[in-house]
Every structure is written in C-alpha cells, then in structure tokens.
Q: What sequence folds into this?
C-alpha cells in the first residue's frame, strides 16, 4: 500500500484538484484506491460525487480508531460506475472515499499528541483493500495535516507559480523537514507540482523559473496549466478521464504522468535561501 498526502499550507492552490486528478488516473489504471478527505470542508468528497453524511465520516472513524473499518465505512465514488469494467478481473473498479466533514475538525489542533497523530496510520494499517491511498489535506499544519503525514510514505506539495504560493511552499518544505526529523524519519517528499500555470503571464513564467531554481529536480513534470473547463468538470463531479474533449484528454494524460512519477523515488527537495 502506498500512502500519499497532498499538501500545502496555503488554501486554494489546487490540493483537492490534484487529489481528484490523481484519483481519476488511478481509476483509469485500475489501481484500487482510497481517497481520505481530511479537509473538514469535504471538497474532495463532493468532487468524487459523494455526499458528506456525518455518520461514517473520517472524523468519526478517527475518533473510533481502535475499531474503525475504513474499507467498510468508505463510500464508493460514482465515478466507478462510469469506468470501463475490467473484463478479466472479478472485482470491479475500486475508488472509495473516506468522506470528509466538519467533525474531523476536533483533531485540527496545533497540540496533538503522538498517540492522536497515529490514529489514521493505525486505521490504514488494518486495511488490505487498497493499493493506493491519497490524503487530501487541509491548508494548515495543525493536527489533521500532521496526522496525514504520520500515515504517509510521501508528501506531494502543490503550489501556484505566484509569490505567496512559492514562499508558502518553501515554508511547507521546512515544516516537513522538521516533522520528518521528529516523528517520521522515513517520510519523503514526492515533489512539488506547479498548478494553474498561465503561460501568457510574464509574472507566472518568472515564478515558474524561480521554482525551478528553488526546488530543482523536486519540481515535478508536467506542470499543470490553468484550465478553463476545470470547474465545470469538478462541478459535475466527473473524473477528468471521463470528460469529453481534447483539453480534458490532455489534462488526464498529465495526471497519468504524475501518478507514474509517484511510484519512482525522487531526490529530496533542495532549497535556496533568498
Ligand atoms: N489547473 C487549474 N485550472 C483551473 N482551475 C483550477 C485549477 N486547479 C484548481 N483550480 C480551481 O481553483 C480552485 C481551488 O482549487 P482547489 O483544488 O479547491 O484548491 P485547494 O484544495 O488547495 O484549496 C477551485 O475552484 C478549482 O476548481
Ligand atoms: Mg481543498
């Protein structure tokens, strides 16, 4: 089982969008996948077509971590009903969601103790249904993100090529380094994805170059462009792989490449001081 956190300490940069794109690529590749929606806003659940239900949501599973059966509690995404059925396999496509909700907010405190930080890790260790677990994190370094990092082998960072986002990514990398030293020595950076890149903007081209200098090989390829039909696809709760048209096909191919990259090891992110 590979567990990947999708993080940034800044909101609105595309964590949920990247989580959904990777989930779509994993579904297309036939990889049994669980999305853990750890952001109390539950945007990933909505994008995957699953209504926050309050009963079996991730907050309640975390509260009952000792007994929680995440595979039983997770909801299948309706995306799977549109996925081509793999004729040879007995099992249909698997893409489940550990549904998000406000209740998980009880753990989003800055002072969470190690026993609490391990709740998600303990729950995931008991399941055998999924090969890939994608954790959509909230935009802070409080308890929920730290719980996600504790449960993960890798952290994928998302950044927009803009001043505050690049600076925020540097801060996140620093926080990740400290966290790794203190709590999870094996935790790796999966790299930095640049999202919403607008080639027509000189400022964005400048910031992307800056990111190349700052993050070196850890800046992942491909860069994700700002895409006009993105919100339409997400609003319809569709997988990008299942959306018609050339633009969606290109976007889907980019997520296929990012997903492939997640299974190869990368050097740690380098940072330059400015
Ligand atoms: N590459 C993109 N092109 C166009 N819109 C995007 C792109 N990535 C994200 N968005 C939009 O930006 C907004 C914030 O993205 P979201 O994934 O919710 O960020 P986060 O989870 O980091 O808060 C959403 O409305 C989303 O549809
Ligand atoms: Mg989000």
A:
């Amino acid at each position: 089982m590979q567990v990947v956190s999708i993080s940034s300490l800044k909101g609105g940069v595309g964590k949920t969008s990247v989580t959904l794109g990777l989930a779509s690529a994993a579904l297309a590749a036939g990889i049994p996948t669980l999305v853990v929606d750890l952001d109390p806003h539950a945007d990933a659940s909505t994008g995957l077509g699953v209504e926050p239900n309050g009963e079996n949501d991730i907050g309640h599973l975390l509260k009952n971590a000792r007994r929680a059966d995440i595979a039983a509690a997770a909801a299948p995404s309706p995306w799977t009903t549109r996925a081509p059925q793999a004729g040879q396999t007995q099992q249909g496509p698997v893409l489940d969601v550990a549904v998000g909700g406000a209740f998980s907010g009880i753990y989003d405190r800055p002072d969470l103790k190690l026993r609490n930080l391990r709740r998600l890790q303990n729950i995931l260790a008991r399941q055998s249904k999924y090969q890939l677990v994608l954790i959509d994190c909230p935009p802070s370094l409080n308890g929920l993100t730290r719980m996600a990092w504790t449960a993960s082998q890798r952290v994928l960072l998302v950044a927009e090529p803009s001043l505050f986002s690049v600076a925020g990514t540097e801060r996140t990398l620093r926080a990740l380094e400290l966290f790794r030293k203190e709590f999870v020595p094996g935790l790796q950076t999966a790299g930095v994805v640049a999202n919403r890149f607008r080639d027509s903007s000189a400022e964005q081209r400048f910031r992307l170059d800056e990111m190349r200098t700052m993050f070196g090989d850890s800046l992942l390829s491909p860069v994700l462009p700002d895409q006009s039909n993105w919100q339409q696809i997400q609003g319809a709760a569709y997988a990008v792989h299942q959306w018609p048209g050339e633009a969606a096909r290109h976007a889907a191919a980019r997520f296929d490449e990012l997903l492939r990259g997640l299974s190869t090891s990368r050097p740690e992110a380098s940072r330059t001081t400015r």
Notes: The chain is about 40% helix and 15% strand. Residues 269-274 have pLDDT under 50 and may be disordered. The chain has one domain: 2-262.
